[in-house]
Amino acid sequence: MQLTGYNYIAGETSAEGAETFFSVNPRSKETADLPFHNATAAEVARAVEAAEAAFTEIRDYSSEKIADFLDEIAEQIEALGDELLDCADRETGLGLPRLTGERERTTGQFRAFGSFLREGSYLRPIINSEQPGQPSIRQMQFPVGPVAIFAASNFPFAFAVAGGDTASALAAGCPVVVKAHPGHPATSEMFAQAFNAAVAAGGFPAGTFSMLQGNGIDVGQWLVAHDGIEAVGFTGSLRGGRAIYDAAASRPRPVPVYAEMGSVNPVVITGAALAQRADDIAEGLVASITMGTGQFCTNPGLILLQDSPAAQDFIADVTAKMSVAPAGVLLNETIARGLEGTVGRTVANPEISVLTGGEAIADSDYFCFSNTVMQTTAAAIRADDRLQVEHFGPVTLFVVCEDGADLSATVDALEGNLTSTIHAESDELGDIGDLLHQLREKAGRVIWNGFPTGVAVVQAMQHGGPYPATTAPGTTSVGMNAIYRFMRPIAFQNVPDALLPDPLKDANPLGIMRLVDDVYTDGRL
Amino acid sequence: MQLTGYNYIAGETSAEGAETFFSVNPRSKETADLPFHNATAAEVARAVEAAEAAFTEIRDYSSEKIADFLDEIAEQIEALGDELLDCADRETGLGLPRLTGERERTTGQFRAFGSFLREGSYLRPIINSEQPGQPSIRQMQFPVGPVAIFAASNFPFAFAVAGGDTASALAAGCPVVVKAHPGHPATSEMFAQAFNAAVAAGGFPAGTFSMLQGNGIDVGQWLVAHDGIEAVGFTGSLRGGRAIYDAAASRPRPVPVYAEMGSVNPVVITGAALAQRADDIAEGLVASITMGTGQFCTNPGLILLQDSPAAQDFIADVTAKMSVAPAGVLLNETIARGLEGTVGRTVANPEISVLTGGEAIADSDYFCFSNTVMQTTAAAIRADDRLQVEHFGPVTLFVVCEDGADLSATVDALEGNLTSTIHAESDELGDIGDLLHQLREKAGRVIWNGFPTGVAVVQAMQHGGPYPATTAPGTTSVGMNAIYRFMRPIAFQNVPDALLPDPLKDANPLGIMRLVDDVYTDGRL
Questions:
Q1: Inter-chain CB proximity A137 and B456 less than 8 Å
Q2: Which residues in chain B have Cβ-Cβ distances shorter than 8 Å to A254?
């Protein structure tokens, strides 16, 4: 496949800007030859205006037509072949096994949304028929309009140009303008070519998909500030997400930002769990902390337990395992430097003890950071919110609590997270309920005797949580319900049957489940 | 009933502040004797902290217990008797027939949420059972925590202290801190006493409900800025709503604001509709514009039609009817002054012709403004967004379009609205589809051959719309779905059955409808 280094705007390549950047191989720190062109303000505007024009057509496409398009995208991604895997591996160092699995998840997401659309009830049709003194009111979900998507660095497939945010926005019937992540621009361009092929094959308007390159903050700020954007999906850092959120909130016409900004994912381990399963938990924990070199938003970054000889042994065991684990490849220099900064600030706190790691590895041939285990007290973390910062990499912090009350007070002081985890024994059930309730308030997903990494793409999944994990705790960025971030209900009052959308017509021509006069039915009115 | 003029904080009256204000009768402009005390920053903090404490209990109450509480609130409101109607009439001038109907709607909302909760499926339980390689994941909706509610002036019952925002937040399981509207402080205090009685009767923690008085912006700003508030409901002006939105968005930990900020509610009338039903439409329109002295967020403030002799006759007919209609009582001096400001700025635009009214009524004994009809061109409104401002009162603006293309371009240039309306004939159906699609994008509810005032409280109702109608177009502030503004999904992974909330247990002890492995069922797992 021929790569250009250009932006992809409504089916055309474009490179009007003079600023360029390069792809870097994190395993060798070598810079590739092809320059990638930062989009200009005019290019950003052109992409959004093309999306607005496309929306006037797409907004009336049937669920079936959109589902076919999603399937076509999955096929076009597969048609990129192993070249996609090799390219992403060169740009991210994530390795072929992981990338092979991630590609399957990515195409699976498009196909799952296709099935979801064909079933039809996702439109949530609600009908109240005409009654004496009350008109006929019928509502369903409609796409909101052009959506801006910000790709993440750590999932070059599943949370990037062709990730879940893009899949759910397109499934909703919204054109997308994706800001690619500068960590993997060539991979992004390959996806853009797949999207262009799918747009052409599906007969969709060219403005349905655009992709902008950029290695600074300008492109994203221009994109979010454009009045044509109706909603924003973002996966990345707290700092980046908050900047996008602030930009959208300060627009003359503010729009919602669905930002998933990472998490420290607290793990509580009881004394009984340690007594029964210390070795298994230590092994699982180290695997979870170092998986993908710790570059998961669900990485367990904070481990809370009550002080005891067993707890000290456990911490020593985890520390030993972490210290002998090989230092993994980090995605890029920005993440390596970021770890130096965040870990550096944390270890500068006098209440922090470094048990292993805690610093950069000098003279390394690849981007990396030492596997790091730190320890502090419950009182210290309650006294300083900065100790709850995410260290995006193979880093964790033990919080040693004096007793149950100290633990409980500390859980209450936690900020919002994507997940919270508890390791306990079933004979503790009576005592553990309150703690589980506390952990529930701090996260979008509560895990029992497991580890937070690994997010099943199923209907019941909730990938979200209170700020700073996300800016919209009522929504999810994984699973089918992610579509509702990009839809809104519209009600029709006394509109003649012939003018209603099919899902709301008397005859229910699509045969989908509807709430009619407060009763669920797939029949006609 | 004895009124105090105090704030109601977690069951106790409190009046620590020195600043006071008074209730004013809009029919006589007379000020009542009782001083109402603006809440202080310390009182605001106390109310929020009590709500936070209450939440640690309420969050685990059953739907049944909350439903009983909602019924109890309805009964306590009814127990206030006709004294409530008289009090509200003295403070708002809305008249006993309207207030009697509004009280019924208000108690009806609490009871409707009660039924909604007892049915149980509102919790949206979703279960994916354990499969090879995939853990058990189960999610349902949970309350977000303490909610701040801002009462509106124009519905002293249905959108105020005991309005739909409060009802939906309490139904969700969230404690509420209500900022009362200074236009009807005595009415607000009567409701606070009813809530206190219901809290005591239901055995709910005192912090479940607090009500703060205030006639400036400070109380609201303190309330929204408090870190204990997890979500905000607001009904009122664009200026007020945007200030609250901005305050919440700029918090260190931002939270969602669900602000309903009014609308101009465009009405399109086709030539065929005029030819068939000009008299009926004129009569209905004038009734809708003057109903409640035009003080509805669904008031038809913008009427678009194509130029023709029939259109000129229609405009003249509406103008004549408006000019002879009696000038109604406005709620308060702020609204009267507001109309002088907004209408004054609009008529200062050289593209605006005043057909009747357009100014204050000198030497009136009561708060009022002349019934006002204005006219402009489609080109003028496209050229100046300020002509889309809401004139909150008995005011409408005709937009005369040259032809269909001029009309279509103008509809495309409309801002977001709560409603959009079209009057057309059924033999126009073929031509009208595109216009209907355009109107759909501009509103939360599309009305055919009707008028936007009158909002049925049914499941299919959507009371919302794109900014500036609201800050959250995906949500509604009327109808049962309003509850989801104040809930968020939480997923449980591999949590033992005994520790799961009842709606997620294997046995489905509540017998509610659940989505189990992608199939709806009310059976057990």
A1: yes
A2: 245, 249, 467, 471
Residue A511, judged by CB atoms within 10 A of its CB (0-12, 13-18, 19+), counts as exposed
ipTM score for this prediction: 0.96
Collapsed DSSP state (helix, strand, coil) of residue B219: helix
- In contact, B7 and B213? CB cutoff 8 Å: yes
How many alpha carbons lie under 13 Å from residue B497 in its C-beta half-sphere? 9
User: How confident is the model at residue B433, as a pLDDT?
Assistant: 87
Phi–psi pair at B161, nearest 5 degrees: -55, -40
Asked if A461 and A478 count as a contact pair (C-beta separation under 8 A), the reply is yes
Residues of B assigned a catalytic role: 260, 297
Q: Answer whether CATH 3.40.605.10 is correct for domain B34-261+473-485.
A: yes
Question: Hey, what amino acid is at B8?
Answer: Y
If we measure between CA atoms, which residue out of B354, B342, B423 comes closest to residue B387?
A: B342
CATH-assigned architecture of domain B266-448: 3-Layer(aba) Sandwich (3.40)
Best residue in B488, B505, B517, B521 to probe A by mutation, most A CBs within 10 Å?
Answer: B488
Nearest alpha carbon to residue A211 among A255, A246, A166, A177: A177
Q: Which token pair is A499?
A: 């003018």
**What global pTM score does this model have?**
0.97
Residues of A in contact with B499 (CB under 8 A): 429, 432-433, 436, 448
Q: Which H/E stretch holds residue B320?
A: helix B309-324
Measure the CA–CA gap between A188 and A328, rounded to whole angstroms. Answer: 23
Asked if pLDDT for residue B431 goes beyond 80, the answer is no
- C-alpha B478/C-alpha B158 separation (Å) is 10
Q: Are B436 and A499 in contact (CB < 8 Å)?
A: yes
Phi, psi of A133 (to 5 degrees): 80, 5
Burial of residue B430 (number of CB atoms within 10 Å: 0-12, 13-18, 19+): exposed
Distance (Å, rounded) from C-alpha A357 to C-alpha A136?
Answer: 67
Mean pLDDT of all residues belonging to chain B: 97
Whether residue A456 contacts residue B134, with contact meaning beta carbons closer than 8 Å, is answered with: yes
Given the residues A72, A91, A260, A390, select the one marked as catalytic. A260
Tokens 């520790």, residue?
B499
Residues of A with Cβ-Cβ distance to B473 under 8 angstroms:
144, 488
Amino acid (one-letter) located at A18? A
Of the candidates B76, B394, B137, which has an alpha carbon nearest to the alpha carbon of residue A463? Answer: B137
A127 and A517 Cβ atoms separated by less than 8 Å: yes
**From-to residues of CATH 3.40.309.10 in chain A:** 266-448
CATH of A7-261+473-484, one of 3.40.640.10, 3.30.420.10, 3.40.605.10, 3.40.1390.10: 3.40.605.10
C-alpha distances out from residue A403 to A410, A427, A445, A517, B225, Å: 11, 19, 25, 54, 34
Q: What is the pLDDT along chain A (525 residues), one digit of tens a residue?
A: 799 999 999 999 999 999 999 999 999 999 999 999 999 999 999 999 999 999 999 999 999 999 999 999 999 999 999 999 999 999 999 999 999 999 999 999 999 999 999 999 999 999 999 999 999 999 999 999 999 999 999 999 999 999 999 999 999 999 999 999 999 999 999 999 999 999 999 999 999 999 999 999 999 999 999 999 999 999 999 999 999 999 999 999 999 999 999 899 999 999 999 999 999 999 999 999 999 999 999 999 999 999 999 999 999 999 999 999 999 999 999 999 999 999 999 999 999 999 999 999 989 999 999 999 999 999 999 999 999 999 999 999 999 999 999 999 999 999 999 999 999 998 887 778 889 999 999 999 999 999 999 888 899 999 999 999 999 999 999 999 999 999 999 999 999 999 999 999 999 999 999 999 999 899 999
